[in-house]
Amino acid sequence: MKFIKIINKKYRQGLGIAAFMSVIGVFISCDPALSHYEFDLPETGSIADATPPTANFSATQSSIDYRIYNFSNLSVSATTYLWDFGDGNTSSSLDGVNTYPGEGTFTVTLTASDALGVESTFSMTIEIVEPEAPAAIVPFIKEASFEDNSPGSEDCGSGNMDGRDCWRISGGRIFGITSSPVRTGSQGAKFDAGSDRVAYQALTVTPNTDYIVTVYYTIKTSPVGSAMRLAILGNAISNASEAEDAIIASITGDNQDDANEYLPLVLSFNSGATDTIAIWIDSNNVAESRIDDVSIILAE
Question: Rounded CA gap, 130 and 104, in Å?
């Protein structure tokens, strides 16, 4: 250090500050013992990261499949992203979407980076629970007992409504009304012999659900060979001519033992993929037939 002090004194007297610093730099670089005087400096022209990235996102569960989550990227000042969905799946997309294997708790992490390599992370824990299936619809059958101004009549017209107005279909001849015999109330539906009478009503149902439809029928004892048919159409129709092609289930009743006794005609069916079905009732027109009290319930 004595030698350095001598040089220091000499050059402070004969040289400027710049020359002095140059000489000191030479001695430091040549003497390993002086390496502890070194220190790091920023690269030429470099500046601090004034806008470092901030990672953030929101999560939304799909309304179609409870296992699917959509993640909206809310990060700022970032150029690249890495998603870790917590189930082993990853993604480098701007926004994330993931289908989870099932119920469980998962930690989702987003790492956001900028062009300088600065990173920010944000994590969120989501819990996936399979929702309970909504209760199946039990349809309401309008004018189910064919009474005038009965519940539902107001939806099928105005004024003094008779018990047939909710059962009409274009292209089909509506049934008649009978007052005797009836099963309940004061009126039933009458299907005359030799006449193509029909009953039709569209209903809203829950898809892929089992239902049971019941209608009570009676047929005059002669002529023999008569039958009533209860059918379910897999969709609503606009004309009676479309009915046969739309039938997905049907059952026939042909008991002619007692014209005054109403017997149940019970039909089970599954609604399939549709949310609209229709009840269709007709006869083969051999003998006069009657029906009353149409109902629909969920199959257990």
Answer: 10
Q: Give tens-digit pLDDT for 70-126.
A: 999 999 999 999 999 999 999 999 999 999 999 999 999 999 999 999 999 999 999
The Cα–Cα gap between 224 and 192 comes to 14
* Distance in angstroms (rounded) separating the CA atoms of residues 238 and 168: 10
Statement to judge: residues 206 and 293 lie in one domain: yes
Question: Which contacts (CB < 8 Å, 24+ apart) does range 121-126 have?
Answer: 121/55, 122/55, 122/56, 122/57, 122/75, 124/57, 124/59, 126/59, 126/69, 126/86
CA distance 152 to 143: 6
Tell how strand 119-128 and strand 90-91 pair up.
Answer: unpaired
Find the angle CA(27)-CA(32)-CA(37) to the nearest 5 degrees: 70
| Distance from C-alpha of 141 to C-alpha of 151, rounded to nearest angstrom | 9
Q: Give me the amino acid identity at 80.
A: T
Please report whether residue 141 resides in a domain: no
Mean pLDDT of 176-189: 96
- Read off the pLDDT of each residue in 169-194 and give the average, rounded to a whole number: 96
Local structure of 80: helix, strand or coil? strand
- pLDDT attached to residue 50: 83
**Residue 86: domain span:** 57-128
Same domain, 11 and 103: no
- Which residue is listed with tokens 């004061």? 186
Distance from C-alpha of 139 to C-alpha of 204, rounded to nearest angstrom: 6
Compute the half-sphere exposure of residue 223: CA atoms within 13 Å on the CB side of its CA.
Answer: 7
